[in-house]
């Protein structure tokens, strides 16, 4: 569209900084979010009187990633791998235990008061469950106006009105929606309201945590298309956190695959799906069912055995070694692999993998073997499983 | 459906890899076997005080043959769970009305007493639910929950049942079963709980297993394990399986026959290969076009289905899907299309998607 050389606004002092060896070689000028060595550890407390810390949940345990302006970065991984926590750490809603997050050139942790409030305006969040994230007692008008008022974009509702109508328009809702309340809308419409609210303060980055997973299958595409349109229209940058690989692949330019608090692999979406390199990514990709019986019958699955280990007791060395079909006797259980660009012909600089044996696996020098399944004892973790339909006890019903 | 076509002599030429397992179910059908389960015009109406009665299931009919895997697929609220609970006799005692027939080998399950139904559930029909935690008893160890079922339905003593329970846990892939027998449900991961639930279901040696979204709450790599396990068990034991899910991908790989539900009624049915290759109902077709696929070229825009289920018209006087349909004609809003059967396919639509290719 525009000539890339005519971008006048890029400060170039960063461009001259030498690229670090283990990191990708971008010059940094187009980086909106730069997360370095981010860790978020939650203490596990027990005991009535002493409230003793008996351990930690290593929810995010050393993540480096960069999000470039205007791109969509997708974060995938299975439940509990730390995707949401990382997203929240980038928003500074969850202060990192260690590491730093630089947003738009500023380390957010150093900001206070007015400055912090201003920066916060630039990063907005869209949540999984639109109903629980919208106050049921507020009308749509008041929900949308709230943020604008707080950030001084409009003083009163009347002044905000044209902007509110414009926002609703952008997300495909009629003006009449302003007077209604969240419960009067369907799930998809509520998600549109959530998106409109995020947009209302002109953010630079939107962190969308599972933006479509609570929606009906037939409605997901509407919201995915909407997010894409808004990105084009407003030049937004997205961090999309989701567990659905097909959704993430569709929407993202680049993707980071998380496993137990760390990135296992990161690549351009097309590269990742065409040639996943990390053993975990390979297994993950091969596990996704495709709505096509012909493909399903031919699909070669890499079936992982056993449970995901508990994030309160992550395995030593490579976090994946307890389930990895390519695991080797040396290194895998003792040395933690760094995220690095592998030396594989045809694999570009933007493709990073955290596996000791990527090159050998890709060359076929190492072949997969059987793995004895291990179960994970969850006694020390809190269980948030919501209760769904089903009798209280199956063995009694039977 | 029972008239087998002339081409029934198996054609080994099809280049799919695992035809054998699926052929079993096909053979059942082509051998003209009687269905194991015959659901006819099943209706469930919820009545709450002060509220309009709500018909969640509006005349659902389908067959399940021995050894066959039948899918019920549709989005949230279309009546999948209510259908399965009605078949199992597990709907709440009050506040609903069930009609139609659920014929299990000549017995209408809807006419059985509670005690008789309980017996059937143990011996012939078992089920697995989406959330294993709420369907396991939280204060009883897993092992005991399996042995209880063995004692009750297979008349075993506690002593005889324990090694069988251990074997069952092992069979469903629970590592270190001796130790796990003593574990409580909350100590197990979601995937292991689901395996335990499957072990309990298998303890009854059922001929029919109803699985309601058994993998929806699980991670995709764990889902793959559970689906592989179910497939293997069905193949090995010849148990018929009713698989309830909203995931068309799961159905595509697992089910011999697929029923697509919309708003409490079946709108399309077919062999999985036919159905996915040639969806005729605009809803089925629309769904397939709207979901992102792992194998589609990137950058392709999704084609959404407009609106939501809250736009549905009442089936009694129209096609419920008409307001969201990409190709409605006049009659679609004037009366209800009937479910019509043609060549092993069933379709409820006035203006089906053209057959291409
Ligand atoms: N406030 C908290 N206190 C203690 N533990 C937490 C807290 N928030 C998250 N955790 C734990 O940290 C781990 C990572 O959680 P997180 O929500 O980031 O995972 P996720 O990848 O988003 O998973 P999901 O797909 O289920 O949303 C989990 O084990 C979770 O139980
Ligand atoms: N006990 C009940 N009382 C009143 N209405 C009910 C009851 N159980 C279910 N319903 C309604 O019946 C309809 C069908 O529900 P059902 O649980 O069968 O949907 P489903 O297809 O299983 O959806 P999901 O994918 O969300 O599980 C829904 O509109 C639901 O609200
Ligand atoms: S480092 Fe070892 S255990 Fe980890 S993914 Fe690579 S081969 Fe598997
Ligand atoms: Mg999350
Ligand atoms: Mg259900």
Automatic annotation (TrEMBL), chain A:
Residues 11-22 have a biased composition (Basic and acidic residues). Pfam families: ABC_tran, oligo_HPY. Keywords: ATP-binding, Nucleotide-binding, Transport. InterPro entries: AAA+_ATPase, ABC_transp_ATP-bind, ABC_transporter-like_ATP-bd, ABC_transporter-like_CS, Oligopep_ABC_C, P-loop_NTPase. The keyword Nucleotide-binding applies. One of its GO terms (biological process) is transmembrane transport. Residues 44-285 form the ABC transporter domain. PROSITE patterns: ABC_TRANSPORTER_1, ABC_TRANSPORTER_2. Residues 1-22 are annotated as: Disordered. It comes from the Bacteria. GO terms for molecular function: ATP binding; ATP hydrolysis activity. Belongs to the ABC transporter superfamily. This is Dipeptide/oligopeptide/nickel ABC transporter ATP-binding protein. It comes from Knoellia locipacati.
From TrEMBL, chain B:
One of its GO terms (molecular function) is ATP hydrolysis activity. Residues 37-288 form the ABC transporter domain. One of its GO terms (biological process) is peptide transport. Its main location: membrane. Residues 20-32 have a biased composition (Basic and acidic residues). Residues 1-32 are annotated as: Disordered. The keyword Zinc does not apply. One of its GO terms (cellular component) is plasma membrane. Pfam families: ABC_tran (PF00005), oligo_HPY (PF08352). Belongs to the ABC transporter superfamily. This is Dipeptide/oligopeptide/nickel ABC transporter ATP-binding protein. The lineage of its organism: Bacteria, Bacillati, Actinomycetota, Actinomycetes, Micrococcales.
């Amino acid at each position: 569209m525009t000539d890339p050389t005519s971008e006048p606004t890029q400060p170039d002092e960063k461009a001259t900084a030498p690229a670090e060896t283990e990191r990708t070689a971008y010059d940094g000028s187009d980086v909106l979010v730069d997360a370095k060595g981010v860790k978020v550890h939650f203490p596990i407390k027990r005991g009535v009187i002493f409230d003793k810390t008996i351990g930690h949940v290593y929810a995010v345990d050393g993540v480096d990633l960069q999000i470039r302006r205007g791109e969509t970065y997708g974060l995938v991984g299975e439940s509990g791998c730390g995707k949401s926590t990382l997203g929240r750490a980038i928003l500074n809603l969850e202060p990192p235990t260690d590491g730093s997050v630089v947003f738009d050139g500023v380390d957010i942790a150093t900001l206070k008061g007015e400055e912090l409030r201003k920066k916060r305006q630039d990063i907005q969040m869209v949540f999984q469950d639109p109903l629980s994230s919208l106050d049921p007692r507020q009308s749509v008008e008041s929900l949308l106006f709230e943020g604008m008022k707080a950030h001084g974009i409009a003083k009163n509702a009347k002044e905000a009105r044209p902007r509110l109508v414009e926002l609703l328009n952008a997300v495909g809702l009629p003006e009449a929606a302003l007077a209604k309340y969240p419960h009067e809308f369907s799930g998809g419409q509520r998600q549109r309201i959530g998106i409109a609210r995020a947009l209302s303060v002109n953010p630079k980055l939107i962190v969308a945590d599972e933006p479509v997973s609570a929606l009906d299958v037939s409605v997901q595409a509407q919201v995915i298309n909407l997010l894409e349109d808004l990105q084009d229209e407003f030049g937004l940058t997205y961090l999309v956190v989701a567990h659905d690989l097909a959704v993430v692949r569709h929407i993202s330019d680049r993707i980071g695959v998380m496993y137990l608090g760390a990135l296992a692999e990161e690549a351009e979406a097309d590269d990742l799906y065409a040639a996943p390199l990390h053993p975990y990514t390979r297994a993950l990709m091969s596990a996704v069912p495709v709505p096509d019986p012909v493909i399903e019958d031919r699909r070669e699955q890499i079936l992982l055995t056993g449970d995901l280990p508990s994030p309160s007791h992550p395995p030593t060395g490579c976090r994946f070694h307890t389930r990895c079909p390519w695991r080797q006797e040396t290194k895998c259980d003792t040395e933690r692999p760094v995220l690095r660009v592998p030396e594989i012909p045809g694999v570009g600089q933007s493709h990073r993998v955290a596996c000791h044996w990527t090159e050998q696996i890709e060359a076929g020098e190492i072949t997969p073997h059987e793995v004895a399944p291990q179960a994970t004892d969850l006694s020390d973790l809190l269980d948030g499983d919501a209760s769904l339909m089903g009798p209280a006890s199956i063995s009694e019903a039977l | 459906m029972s008239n087998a076509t002339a081409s029934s002599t198996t054609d080994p030429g099809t280049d799919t890899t695992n035809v054998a397992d699926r052929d079993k179910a096909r053979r059942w059908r082509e051998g003209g076997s009687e269905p194991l389960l015959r659901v006819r015009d099943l209706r469930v109406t919820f009545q709450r005080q002060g509220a309009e009665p709500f018909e969640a299931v509006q005349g659902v009919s389908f067959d399940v043959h021995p050894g066959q895997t039948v899918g019920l697929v549709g989005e949230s609220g279309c009546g999948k769970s209510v259908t399965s609970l009605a078949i199992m006799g597990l709907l709440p005692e009050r506040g609903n009305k069930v009609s139609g027939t659920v014929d299990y080998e000549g017995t209408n399950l809807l006419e059985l007493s509670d005690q008789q139904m309980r017996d059937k559930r143990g011996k012939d029909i078992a089920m697995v639910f989406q959330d294993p935690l709420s369907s396991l008893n939280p204060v009883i160890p897993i092992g005991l929950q399996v042995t209880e079922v063995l004692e009750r339905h297979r008349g075993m003593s506690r002593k005889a049942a324990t090694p069988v329970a251990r074997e069952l846990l092992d069979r469903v892939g629970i590592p270190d079963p001796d130790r796990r027998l003593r574990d409580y449900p909350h100590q197990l991961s979601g995937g292991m709980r689901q395996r335990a639930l499957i072990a309990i279901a298998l303890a009854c040696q059922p001929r029919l297993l109803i699985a309601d979204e058994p993998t929806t709450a699980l991670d995709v790599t764990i889902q793959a394990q559970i689906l592989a396990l179910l497939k293997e068990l069905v193949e090995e034991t010849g148990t018929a399986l009713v698989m309830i899910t909203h995931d068309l991908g799961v159905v595509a790989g697992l089910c011999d026959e697929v029923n697509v539900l919309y708003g409490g009624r079946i709108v399309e049915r077919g062999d999985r290969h036919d159905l996915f290759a040639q969806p005729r109902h605009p809803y089925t077709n629309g769904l397939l076009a709207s979901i992102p696929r792992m194998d589609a070229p990137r950058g392709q825009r999704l084609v959404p289905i407009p609106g939501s289920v809250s736009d549905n018209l009442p089936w009694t006087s129209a096609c419920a899907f008409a307001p969201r349909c990409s190709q409605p004609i006049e009659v679609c809003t004037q009366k209800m299309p009937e479910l019509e059967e043609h060549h092993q396919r069933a379709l409820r639509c006035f203006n089906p998607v053209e057959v291409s290719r």
